[in-house]
Amino acid sequence: MTKRRCLVAGGALLLGLVGCAPNEGPPVADPPVVSPTAAPTVSSSPRDSARASFDPSAVELELDVVAEGLDSPLGITNAGDGSDRLFVTEQVGRIRIVDGGELVTEPFLDVSELVVAGGEQGLLGLAFHPDYQDNGRFFVNYTDTDGDTVVAEYRVSDNPDVADPDSQRVLLRIDQPFPNHNGGHVAFGPDGYLYVATGDGGGGGDPHENGQDLTTLLGKLLRIDVDAPGGEPYGIPGDNPFADKGDARPEIWAYGLRNPWRFSFDRATNDLWIADVGQSAFEEVNRVRAAAAGLDYGWDVMEGRNCFEVADCETQGRVLPVTGYSHDDGCSITGGYVYRGSDAPELQGGYVFGDYCSGSIWVLDARAKGFVAPVRVAAEAGSISTFGEDEDGELYMANLALGQILQLTTR
Ligand SMILES: [Ca+2]
Ligand SMILES: [Ca+2]
After folding, report:
1. What is the dihedral of CA 184, 190, 192, 196, to 10 degrees?
2. How far is the CA of 304 from the centre of ligand 1 (A)?
3. Which DSSP category does 112 fall into?
4. How far is ligand 2, taken at its centre, from the CA of residue 11, in Å?
5. Which of 278, 332, 359, 379 is least enclosed by beta carbons within 10 angstroms?
6. What is the rounded CA–CA span in Å between residue 1 and residue 6?
7. Which has the closest alpha carbon to 260: 288, 238, 232, 231?
8. Within the chain, what is the greatest distance between any pair of CA atoms?
């Protein structure tokens, strides 16, 4: 693989992809901006002490271009099939393959005629079935030509580099009242279920109060069983927290989310990390145990650690961020991964994430307790639209404006 070293200091381009759409208007409330105070504390549970400690000050980040010439790349993942290929989603509705450092010319899948793209809309998510190597099934999340969210299944063809465009099976169709806040990430959890992030439907300040409303799929993290018996597109896992709760939608795993732009499961601990794009003040990262069901991430009662909709809000019982940053340092968070690869030993055990607008990249000790300020390891690294992992846990990011995929390593 030929790698080209890339200067970390590139120009950050403000395209308003996520979260900072101009139609969001002024803040409804004017909550005090949290000043992150550095108080890194590290636990010493047996599980943690088995790992080397993460030292953010030791990280000297390097970004190596591994592919370019992509059209607004929004997602990076792998098939988990031993092929070592990277699969990159282009916003317009194509899935491209990077194989051995080469961008394959023919798309793996092209659904651009089904997709409306631009702003926060487009082909937003891709996840391969845990048994993809045997069953060839994968799942996408896109905005359809009506502006609504579709989660659909496809299958590979006889050619491993080409999917069958006629194999589509729709799992979910979700009405979107506004063009922004479509969430869109899909990923399989360590439990084998498919998790789907939805935004609050947009419009600014969650005008329809979807985040806290358990009767809508908007503003949620969903969890569905794509291997359900009986031929249904999906089933409801029996231990979903609202599987038998009256009017609540049984697909809901967690709620109170505004526009979760990327979530991930830690390969080593299974912990679930969700980055949620803020309204006008604060971008947040949340970390919970993978098995913690039915959690409320706060929106739109809260934005970050502050009350949002009402001045004196109830914070008890809600998930509060483990880290985040104010809009002095960016405007739209792009969630990342806890690094568990080997090419960048100094990143081991660190959660890596960035901001789309400022191009900053930060790290946080994955074992941090309470609220810990992140440590910036790069600035102006471009329009960071996504992070993604290869099969070995090596970490990549996409620069949307420049059409590049870059690997994160350390000097
Ligand atoms: Ca509201
Ligand atoms: Ca929150």
Report:
1. -10
2. 15
3. G
4. 29
5. 379
6. 15
7. 288
8. 59
